[in-house]
Each structure stands twice: as structure tokens, then as C-alpha cells.
Amino acid sequence: LTLPPSVISIGDGAFRYLMNLTELEIPSSVERVGESAFANCGKMESLSCNEGLKVIGDSAFYYCSGFTSNLVIPNSVTTIDSYAFYNCSGFKSLTLSESLTSIASNTFYGCTGFSGNLVIPNSVTTIGNNAFYNCRGFNGTLTLSESLTSIGTYAFSSSSSYRMCFKGDLMIPNSVTSIGSNAF
Predict the structure, then answer these.
(1) Could you write out the DSSP letters of every residue in 43-111?
(2) pTM: predicted TM-score of the whole model, two decimal places
(3) What is the pLDDT of residues 117-132, one digit of tens each?
């Protein structure tokens, strides 16, 4: 799929169930990816988001699978809504935007394939319920934002059949005032 640089917004459900979509580059002109815009694209191998993107809507990439690349959220992104990458599979690593203010509930729920470290940028103040629930593959260090105030229920937890593995110590910043049940 090739989007022209004249596109500034991708509407809700615009390319939902586009089963043969394998590569997607979101041009720098796009500021918003709408709700369920690319949901259930089952063969997506590569996703490239360019600087300029500000909002990734609810369920934007819900149940996309087949990824073989890294997921890099550009620094221009301030908002990733709930379920945006719910049950996506195959990403190799995750780099979050330095402008992101929160990680919504269920954003990365059930994602598989991630490896390496997970760094929550210092711009993030809240992590919602189930944000990384049942994510599998992380095998490095979890570094939390120094501005973090709230960690939701089951935010980094997993079911009994999977274990999220982070090496090293887990330091909860002094700014945290609320930790939900079963957060880790």
C-alpha cells in the first residue's frame, strides 16, 4: 500500500481486513491513524511510521500479524489509544515515542515476538490496565518513566502459562502513587 503525501488522516476502518497488505509506510504528512484503520490485516510484515504522526487511534492495528520488523513509534506521537496493537505478532523490538504522555489500557495486550529491553519514556505519566498483559518475548530490562504516577491493573502481568521476563532489578520511581492489582 502506497499512500500519497497529500493524505493527512486515515479514517476509521479505512483498510480493515485488507488481508494481502504486507508492507505499510505511513508518510510524514499523516497526523492521525483512525480507529480500526488497519485492524485484522493478517499478513502485515512491515510497518513504518514517519515523524509527523501524532495519534494512533483505538484498535488501529488490532490483530495484525506476520510482522518481521521492529516497531518504532516516532517521537511526534503523543497518543496511542486503547487496543492499538492488541494481539499483534512478530515485532522484534519496541521503541516508544519520547512525546508519549500515556500508554492506554490494552495497547500492547498479547503482543508476541518482542525481545530486548523495554524503556518507558520519561514523558509517560500513566500506564493503563493490561497495557502489556501477556506480552511474550521481552528478555531484557524494564525501565520505567521517572514521571510515572500510575501503573494499571495487570499492566505487565501475564497468565500462568506465559512469563514476562525482565532481567535485573525493577525500580519503581518515587513519582508513582498508584499501582494496580497484579500489575507485575
Answers:
(1) T--EEEE-TT--EE-TTTTTT-----S-EE--TT--EE-TTTTTT-B----EE--TT--EE-TTTTTT-
(2) 0.93
(3) 899 999 999 999 999 9
